[in-house]
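We emphasize that the prediction below concerns an isolated chain of 271 residues; any contacts that depend on oligomerization or on bound cofactors are therefore not represented. The input was used exactly as deposited, without trimming of termini.
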Amino acid sequence: MRPMLGCFEIMKRRVGIVCATFTLLAFPALAHADDAAAGADLEAGGLKPPAPVPGETNPAPSQPEAALDRADKEDSGRGLEFVWLNADVGAEYLGLQTFRNKGLVDSTYIRSKGMGGAYGAGLGVRLLVFTFGARFRFGDFADWQLWTLNAEAGLRIPLGRFEPYLTLSGGYASLGDFSGSDLAQRVSPKNARGFDARAGFGVDVYVTNTFSVGGNLTGDVLFLSRSGGSSITAPMPSGPIQEQQAQALYFRDGSGIGAGATLSAVLGLHF
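Result of the prediction step, given as a token string:
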């Protein structure tokens, strides 16, 4: 009986050793299974970690960003401009009665069209690409002189150091100082007044941030009139009939619509 009990004890110990061995071997497998299950739960819940990116590339810039980058590269570095002033000198061709002739001048003794020197100056302010100001221009012709004082507005197109621009202006015009021979001075009006409308195109080249050189071409339309009687310079002469007819013309009111063009060189200051 005792030998049987001994054999049973030995078998019991061996079974215990085997069970312990299987338990030790199964523990890593269970831990791995738990990790896999946890990972599966994260993926199922939408918390899956992002896959590694092999190599990120910079996205292409949008169109506005590209335009800003290009503007930065092309920027002349002049910054904002608030005040401008310039002076111009050139040549002007003008006809006093191009579109309408209602006896403004008698072309028998005074030339109603011609070429002369033009001198001007302007001053104003600038808001981004828009300019506003005033301009004086004086034209000196063989038989008369003309000056204008206009309000002016402009649109400028910044292209680095080059700035094309357009201008529109209008204002007061005065025609007078008729000269020539003594006879022409006797049979001529004292002056005529009216309105000047002008449009122009030009280009400025910025030599420095504040100094520019350039040129412009402008066209003018003049609406001039004079009053009769008191506008004549001398009593009616008693000479040839042509003189009497010319002087008689100035005893009546007269008017004319003229046109001209001016090509000028321009020097400017910008602040």
